[in-house]
Design goal:
single chain, alpha/beta, Rossmann fold, 4-stranded antiparallel sheet, 10 strands, globular
Length: 270
């Protein structure tokens, strides 16, 4: 059982011409294996700042992040080991993959760097990862990212995140740049992987409807503060905070999204 704890994290930026801006204000939560937390908020709420702190691209102004009760190392082998246990799936599948390299290269690199399998087994592991995200290895392994659809690219990005066999995933708006018709397929894939691999997933989104579909628990972030949290259905169907109610009301079809749980469908490799 792996547990990531965020304890009283505050992040303040010094903005030229605007002074000090508090992006996060005393945020605390814990994410464990086999659990999905939906972190919901509009642009500027602090969601991406949390992702950057968890991936050690930023450091908190105060507070701390612990993995299994221990502070995250700031450099060296300890930080590298932490980053192997926590991986990120980025928002933009068009920008997160290097257009000059093949899909094979994108998946081989973390396998080799993290020494996940012996070198002689790398090709077989690349093919297993592609199959795991419902892509046909023979048809995509030697292609470049621009030769794939958006949904296929995001599946490759998920496979790359899984290559190091992490315990935790941070998924930052992973379907927001995909066509509406294929979003649910990618979310269903993530949900399936989370269950079967026992992953802990922090699902970052502005969309309450997909958060309910995908998450066990929802946290609502507004201006850097967690204003509401609880089981997904409770937060969606009976929101207590005015900001959560505003997000709920902004849904284009509240009856469709909130009247009953979203249906799970099999996702094609689009």
């Amino acid at each position: 059982m792996t547990t990531l704890e965020v304890r009283h994290v505050t992040k303040v930026y010094n903005v030229r011409g605007a002074g000090r801006m508090k992006a996060l204000d005393d945020v605390s939560f814990a994410l464990g294996s086999h659990q999905t937390i939906g972190l919901v908020g509009q642009s500027g709420s602090g969601k991406s700042t949390i992702a950057k702190i968890l991936t050690q691209l930023e450091r908190p102004t105060s507070g701390e992040v612990l993995l299994d009760g221990e502070p995250i190392p700031r450099a060296g082998k300890g930080l590298r080991a932490y980053r192997q246990r926590l991986r990120m799936v980025f928002q933009d599948p068009f920008a997160s993959l290097n257009p000059y390299h093949s899909i094979r290269h994108h998946l081989e690199r973390p396998l080799l760097l993290d020494r996940v399998v012996p070198r002689g087994q790398v090709d077989a592991e690349v093919r297993r990862l592609l199959d795991r995200v419902r892509l046909d290895p023979g048809s995509v392994i030697d292609r470049r990212p621009h030769e794939l659809s958006g949904g296929q690219r995001q599946r490759v990005a998920i496979a790359r995140a899984l290559a190091s066999r992490p315990a935790l995933l941070v998924a930052d708006e992973p379907v927001s740049m995909l066509d509406v018709s294929i979003r649910l397929g990618v979310l269903n894939l993530l949900a399936e992987l989370q269950r079967e691999e026992g992953l802990g997933v922090l699902y970052i989104t502005h969309d309450l409807a997909t958060a309910r579909h995908f998450s066990d628990e929802i946290m609502v972030l507004n201006q850097g503060r967690v204003v509401e949290r609880g089981p997904a259905d409770a937060v969606i169907l009976d929101p207590q905070d005015p900001y959560t109610r505003e997000l709920r009301a902004a849904s284009p079809d509240p009856e469709k999204h909130f009247g009953r749980p979203a249906a799970t469908i099999a996702g094609g490799a689009q």
